[in-house]
Structures are given as structure tokens and as C-alpha cells.
Write a structure and sequence with these properties.
By secondary structure, the protein is mostly helical. The protein has helices at 14-35, 53-64, 69-86, 91-111, 118-130, 136-160, 169-181, 184-198, 202-221, 232-257, 261-264, 267-296, 299-313, 315-330, 343-365, 372-382.
């Protein structure tokens, strides 16, 4: 296993790091709302009673970010796994890498936030191993069938459903008190309870993530990431057609169903809206990816995106760090601000946090080769400790 080693800076595809940084911002924007409310109420949509700038922020997040950021992040994970395949990484290394990701995800879910996505990614990655030999067009087709099939079937079920009971308000009230006032042990126990309710959702989230991994693998293996000039026409179509189509669909869905259960007129109708939004999110995510890939070819845009890229190179570290900061800020064992911030304030917080993470990434990567969590993950994956510090540059 010692023959395998992490890629160095020269082998990286810079636009992927810029895309990871943008996806990281979107995930933070969505996740901060989840840190600020009981987990059981998140499926109900935004809180009732919002006014003014909070309504505008909630509307914008639902249309432009929610459901799109995790798709973009999933596509990038799929591209990363395909890069490992191209390098001929053995099944043993693949499995060690995935087991490491699963452990990180479970620890994250228990110690910081039950909404962790890494566990889902790890489970999907184990399944991906069995499909790694599919030719690129088959990967694309199966990925589309998995993702659209999951959400299309769920949308059909909700459209045919009658009255569907929302999550218990009593459980949500208990969770709110614990998160707002509890000490670390009480909050951790509540996180475990919330995490246990997430396991059932893996029946949908794991196949959906697997679908995105397969589409991401197709993007790389078909040359659409590595040879943008050859596939420039395809990227232009995605940016000019798929992105606006998904955006228009999202606007129509939000305008029709509103932002929560109350606006939609019932829990089943709101679940239908969420499923339709996830379908519309796919062309938006692909269009966003293509838009950034095309922008990367322009020297002026590339300079701007390149400033974000270091945060993308440390995406795993920053994802966990975001949870550490948010749990400390909102939970009772920290500053206890749970439930006190509206969507506009949370959006501003997300922008400030990412700006600080970008600055920290530039400082860190000028001195070290990897983020700290990425370094530990690579150590576990390859079976030997990779050098962390950069060699000093002679004057």
C-alpha cells in the first residue's frame, strides 16, 4: 500500500478546488439554518412569521442554494473518486479511504451535528466500488436514473398522498430546549437521537448521492473536466440552457408552494414541493459547474476564482470547522444563541465565515501541503504518513 501517495500540487485540477469552495459556501448557508432550529422542524420549511429582509433571504436561499450546493459537492466527490480510479488506486486503498470517511462522518454526526453528509457519501462510495468498471455513458445513464428516479418516485407518492402527519411538535420542543440550554452531554445525547432518525433517510439519500457520484465520474472520464476546449459547446449549453431552466423551475415551484408547510397547504404538498425542487436542482447544479468551468478559462475570472481555491483544497477540514463554530455559537454549552437568528443574519454570518476560511486557507497552505483533516485522512488511506510541512524556499 505504500506505493500509493497523495497527488502533489502540480497534479491538481485547479477549477475543482474553486468549485469546492463555492459548494462549501452553499452548504454553510443551508446548514446554519439547521444549527439554529430543532432537527424535527427542518422538513417543515422556513419558520412562520418571517418579515422583510428575512423573507427575501429565505426565498433566495431556497431558490438559488438549497438542494443545489450538496449536489455540486456530490458531483465533485464523484469526480474525485474517478480521479483515484484513473490513477489505478487498488480496492484496498479505496476501502480504507471510504472507511476513514465513514468514521469521520459518524464522529461528526455525534460530536458536532447530526445532519452530517460524509456518512452518506461513504455508504455511496462503497456501492460505487462495484460500479467502477461501467463505461462512462452507462455511468451517466445509471446516475440519472438513480437520482431522478428516487425524487420522481417520491414526488409521485406525495402527489397521490392524502393527509400526511408532520413530525411531532412535542419532540421538536424538547429538542429546542436541549439545544438552547443543555450542557455538552445533554446536547450530545440529543444529537444521537436526531442522528438515529437520519438513518431511515439513507434509503433515499445514499442512492441519490451514488447517482451524483456516477454523473461526476462520467464528467471526468468523458473529458468534460480535463479537456474543456474540446467540450466547450457542451458546457455552454449547460450554462445557457440547463442552469436557466432549473432556475425558472425553482422559481415557479417556490412561487406555487411557498416556503413552508403553512404556505403549501399541508405537509404532503410541502414534501411534493421539496421533491420537485430536488429535480430542478440537478440542471442548476450541472449548469453552475459548467459556468465556473467556462469562467476558469478567462484570465480575469480565473484570478478571482483562484483566490477561493485554497479553501476548496481544505474542504473537509473547513466543513468540520464550520460545524464546530456553529455548534459553539448556537448550542447551550457554548454561546446559547439557538433560535435567535433569522435567515438574513445567518446568510451574513456564512459570508463572513467563508471569507475568514479563505484567508486562513491561504495562510495554512503557504506553510503546509494539506489541511489537517485531509492530512490525517491521507495517512490512514495510504498507510504511511505523508509530509505535512512544505520545504522552506531558499531566498
Amino acid at each position: 500500500m505504500s506505493q500509493w501517495a497523495p497527488i502533489d500540487d502540480r497534479a491538481r485540477i485547479g477549477v475543482l478546488d474553486a468549485l469546492r469552495a463555492l459548494a462549501l459556501l452553499g452548504i454553510l448557508v443551508v446548514n446554519l439554518e439547521a444549527f439554529n432550529r430543532p432537527w424535527a422542524t427542518l422538513a417543515n420549511g422556513v419558520r412562520d412569521g418571517l418579515v422583510g429582509v428575512d423573507v427575501a433571504a429565505a426565498w433566495g436561499i431556497q431558490v438559488f442554494v438549497a438542494g443545489k450546493a450538496w449536489l455540486l459537492f456530490s458531483l465533485l466527490f464523484g469526480i474525485g473518486f474517478a480521479l483515484l480510479q484513473q490513477r489505478g488506486v487498488s480496492d484496498a486503498v479505496w476501502k480504507r479511504r471510504t472507511w476513514g470517511l465513514l468514521v469521520i462522518g459518524l464522529l461528526h454526526g455525534v460530536l458536532l451535528w447530526p445532519g452530517d453528509i460524509l456518512r452518506t457519501y461513504a455508504l455511496a462510495a462503497f456501492l460505487l466500488l462495484a460500479l467502477r468498471g461501467l463505461p462512462p455513458p452507462r455511468q451517466r445513464d445509471l446516475g440519472l436514473v438513480l437520482y431522478l428516479g428516487i425524487w420522481g418516485m417520491f414526488a409521485a407518492l406525495m402527489a397521490l398522498a392524502g393527509n400526511v402527519a408532520p413530525p411531532s411538535e412535542g419532540d421538536a420542543a424538547v429538542a429546542a430546549r436541549v439545544y438552547a440550554q443543555g450542557d455538552w452531554l445533554a446536547v450530545t445525547a440529543q444529537r444521537l437521537r436526531d442522528l438515529s432518525t437520519m438513518l431511515g433517510s439513507d434509503l433515499m439519500s445514499v442512492p441519490a448521492a451514488l447517482g451524483m457520484f456516477l454523473i461526476g465520474g462520467w464528467l471526468l472520464r468523458s473529458g468534460r473536466i480535463g479537456d474543456v476546449d474540446l467540450h466547450q459547446r457542451w458546457h455552454r449549453r449547460m450554462a445557457a440552457i440547463a442552469l436557466p431552466a432549473g432556475l425558472v423551475a425553482s422559481v415557479v415551484i417556490v412561487s406555487t408552494f411557498g416556503l413552508n408547510v403553512t404556505d403549501a397547504g399541508g405537509y404532503a404538498r410541502w414534501m411534493l414541493a421539496l421533491a420537485l425542487l430536488q429535480v430542478a436542482a440537478l440542471p442548476m447544479a450541472l449548469g453552475m459547474l459548467s459556468l465556473v468551468v467556462l469562467a476558469w478559462r478567462d484570465r480575469r475570472w480565473r484570478r478571482a476564482l483562484d483566490r477561493l481555491a485554497p479553501a476548496g483544497r481544505m474542504a473537509l477540514t473547513h466543513y468540520l470547522l464550520q460545524s464546530l463554530v456553529a455548534s459553539t455559537l448556537f448550542y447551550g454549552y457554548g454561546f446559547g444563541r439557538f433560535g435567535q437568528w433569522g435567515p438574513a443574519a445567518l446568510l451574513a454570518l456564512a459570508l463572513v465565515m467563508l471569507a475568514l476560511q479563505v484567508l486562513a486557507s491561504h495562510w495554512w497552505l503557504a506553510r503546509f501541503r494539506f489541511g489537517p483533516v485531509e492530512w490525517a485522512w491521507r495517512w490512514w488511506t495510504y498507510g504511511h504518513r505523508p509530509p505535512l510541512r512544505r520545504a522552506p524556499v531558499d531566498a
